[in-house]
Amino acid sequence: MKSSVYILLGLLLIGFESCRKDYEAPVPYTFTNTPGSGRFVASVRQTMEGVYGVTDGVGQFGDQVALKWTYVLNGADTTHYLSIFTGVDVGYFNLEGDPKADNLVLNGYWRKLVNTSTGLVRLTVRTKHNGVLEPYTGRLATGDTLVVDGLYGENSGTPTQKLTLTYRRPLNQRPFSILAHRSGGRTSDLLPASENSLEIIKLASRLGATGIEIDVRYTKDGVPILYHDNTLNLRLIQKSGLTGPIEAYTYQQLNTLVRLVNGEKIPTLEEALETVINNTSLNFVWLDTKYIGPMDKVQAIQQKYRQKAILSRRDLRIIIGLPSTDAVASYQALADKENTPILCELDTATTLGLGARIWAPRWTLGPQTQEVLAMKAAGLTVFVWTLDEPKFIQEFVSQNNFDGILSNYSPIVAYYHYVEQ
Amino acid sequence: MWVVCLLFVSTSADAQRERQRPDLRERRVFPPGHPRYVPPDTQQPEIYFPQAPVPGKWRRSIGAVFTTTPPELTEEVRVSVPAIDFNIQRGLTKHLYFAGRIQTQVVQSNLGIGLRWATQVSKRTFIGAGYDLNGWFGALQIKDVFNSQAYGVQTFPSLSVGYRLTRDVQLSVRTEAILDLYYRSQVGNLAVVYDQRRINGVAFTVVLEQPFYDNKHVSLGLRAAYSNFNWQLWSLYDTFDRNLFYPQLIFGFIL
Amino acid sequence: MKVHLSIIVWMVCLFAGNVTILAQSLEQQLSNQTGPDSVKVVSKRGPYTIVVSAGSGLSYYSTHLGVPASLEQTHVSRFGVPATLRAMWYPDHRLRMGLETGWTTMYSYRGLVGNETAHMYVSVVPVLLVFSMPLAWLSGTERSIARRLSITGGTGIYINHSRLDYAGTVMANTNSLGWMAAASYTYPISRRVRVAGELKWYDAVAAENAAFTAEVQFVWRPFSW
Predict the structure, then answer these.
(1) What domain of life is recorded for the organism (chain B) (predicted)?
(2) What is the rounded average pLDDT of the residues A396-420?
């Protein structure tokens, strides 16, 4: 009897251990990344953007979605992608035009960020003319409605389930900043690229972001790099044995021996801003001050890339974020504060006293409607951070007071913003 | 963990061999007056072991539960968060008893009440079933950081098996389902409510109860909760729709 | 938040300590009130013993190990020589409690980056609260195998230490929560001295460092009352 109890206990523990899952969400689709837009010429892309009603696929993706085109630049080449933002479980689609198809065909995948649900998608863009579905040629007659329909699947399985989207109205055009935390999103959300990597910066727009927040630290030899945590740890990097503060290591040591969890190198701040300007359409970069000490190197880089953006005719703001009194002290110690726009996360008096252009309180303080309206009346832009809870995102967007939301879940911020009427 | 399992299995084999010899234990019962004398039919002090207190009698324990935070929520900060843990039970009938529990970390607390039914199925083995209803609440007011409150209701149907390993050591294994009934979260003057019933996760508890020093008994155990939401981490606003692992170390003095 | 947590820990410790002291004094009062027989029973409790053990042996790093892909001609070592120091309180029942620390090599590797050698060495210092139980207590004598065998489990902090020699030397530490499990066989030498063999699993969970150790331990009972 006694041994059976021990065995039962052992089996229970083994069973429990076996039940624990290692979560992963590999992208089931390999993008061709063909430069250009193929059949999806500018007029087609422009007319396709909007809020669509969902008929087939409501259970999985909700009753309406928002379609938005984005692009990635690579030298003279521009590659276009379609994103679909859903209101269910922070769902999104990433699609590209099928260059081999005769019609307007989109291939890609869907994913829900709160869990590991994902799958392949193949959609066709058509127009409903007099109640009959016809191929879309880029011209819509009065009364015609765009219909995007096709099939979606689970994981890497062949798509078999119907999805039908019918155009309802244009996207909400109110200016609003959708800011992606940690350059695009958290590593723990199992995104295809690591947080604070060059790869996720290129992906940010496709996740709905119009801007990004990046975390800046210094290496031992004074190179500003992108890294969030205080220490080298397995949440962010592949196992190599290196531990302790990232500031204890030189750039050469990190560059040679450390890789982020998805295999990328830790980028320098200069590499990150170069990527933003050369490869993306992002219009806002928030440099979060994770270091304690002089700010002059970051200021110099901010000013250098601001000039580069101007020369490239890019609508891009690069702002230094001040999250703490230490960061405020570093800012105040700068010899010349000209052309150094700042964002302050502290209280309203400190923000006004510093002459910051942006105030960014934590969302856990609530909507703070009076303070927000007062700051806006004083000419400041007001963002809230880091808001990931979908219901609260919906409430903050619908209250229409903030100018932007910083979130790990830019797809759901994009959804609630674009469908807002 | 596998090492421990193997060890358990191998030692049980040894114990089996020992038992094949004449039953020394029965003959080595300590006489009345001896400090280790146990009167027949005496209940050992116990909180987790599935055995009802004598009807009308109370039993209590005070201790701490240490919960290790999952990396998905606290990221590089991995800590073992302590909560004061107070249990109270009262026998209602021979098999049925009331169970109450308070866990608190000052800024957040959990109050549970439940009914348990337990019976003896062999000389050493006991089984039990329980249904607990827990209300939790938390509030954080920190300048420039938090102006938040939240509360919720969860329910825990459970099954327990208890086994008297020796005269002085009792092993209890409990399996619980964790069900969410209600959740309300407020920041500033803005509140959201989730009131759909849903399965939150499961938990397995293994507890040893035994004398520790003098006549003082302790509960020492591990609870492995595998759940979507944990009330102790409400202020981190978990958005993952996947079960996270919350190991807990339980240590309680039975009063 | 750290300040709040430490306050809670201290509150729990103080409260638990207070409760036990109260319970003890109450019990003694009750014993005194209920007559000389009961007093006799209480006075028979014990003995309480402080047991200190120190040991060493061989360790084997027994989980996955990451060597940077940029290194060529790599050489990895998973073996080390651990050292353990443990102080336990043996009350008058089966369950024992104490603290354990020590030092254990986890692994080391070296390789070439171009013409330059890179060397990495990883070790841990555990600081653990441990509980231990002999497999037999009321039955048998110290001659029985079951009384000499005991299992030990613990939890606490591992201080993970790394030393990198490449383009300079960097020594750094990171704390990690973790646990340990062990099984030991203790052989009595004299009234105060024992020798034990122990198989042990160290797991620094957050740092994903784990090692299996086999040690011979010198066990000494300096105080007993």
Answers:
(1) Bacteria
(2) 97
